[in-house]
Amino acid sequence: MHRIRFYLIGCFFLLFYAGQGIAQTTEYQPAIQEKLNQFINLSNEQKWSEAFDLLYPKLFQTVGKHELVGMMESMASEGMSNTTENFKVVSYSDLKTFNGEDFVLIKYDSNQKLKMSPAITADDEMRKTVLLNLRQSMGEDNVDYDAKSEVFLIKGIKSMFAISNEGENNWFLVDNNTNQEELLTILIPAQIRNELNQ
Is 167 left (phi over 0), alpha (psi -120 to 50) or beta? Predict the structure, then answer.
C-alpha cells in the first residue's frame, strides 16, 4: 500500500497543469494532449473517479479503482494539495505497437508545489522521509522544501507513457517512474520500455 501511495503522489501530484504542445505534431499528439488536459482538470477538481478513467485500465488489475479513489479522498482530507506551473511537453516519442496496443513516451518539464498534511510537515523526521522519497523518485537536485510556505518544490524533466488500443488514438496514461519498477514491469512490456527509454 505504501508503494501504491507514493505511485499516486507521483502520478497525480507530480504530473502537470495546462500543457503546451511542441511545435511539430503528429496525428496522435493532439489526442494525447487533450487527454492530459482532461486529466489535469478532473484532478484539480478532485473528481478522482473520472480522473482514474483516464489511467491505463491495466493498473486496476493490480489495485482496485474504488480503493484508489478512497485513498485519494483520504489524502485530500488530510490536507494534501498540489499546484503545478510552467508545464511544457519536451518531446513525444515515435509510436510503437506491441501486442495490439500503441505506446508513446512523453517527456515534460514542469514546476510543482506539493503541500503535505500538517501532521507530516510539522514532524521533522516525517518531513525528511518524504523529502528523501521524493528526491529518490525525482532526482536529488529536483526537489527542495520551502519551510516558510511548507511546500515541497519539484522541478525537472519527467516522463509518462500514453497507451491506446492499436490504431484507435484513444489514450490512457501511466507515470514512467523507474522507482516503481515492479509496477512498470506489470504494466508496460519490457520491449517497449527498452525501446522508448533509450
Answer: left
Per-residue model confidence as pLDDT tens digits over 71-82: 888 888 888 887
| Burial profile 167-188: b = 16 or more Cβ within 10 angstroms, e = fewer | eeeebbbbbbbeebeebbeebb
Q: How many domains does the chain have?
A: 1
- Farthest CA pair distance, the chain: 50
Output the pLDDT for position 17: 36
Return the CATH number at 12: 3.10.450.100
Let me know: does 89 contact 106? Beta carbons within 8 Å.
yes
pTM of the entire predicted model: 0.79
Alpha helices in 53-146 (DSSP H): 65-77, 118-121, 124-138
Q: How far is 72 from 80, CA to CA, in rounded Å?
A: 9
Those residues whose C-beta lies under 8 Å from the C-beta of residue 96, and which sit 6 or more positions away, are 102, 103, 104, 192, 195, 196
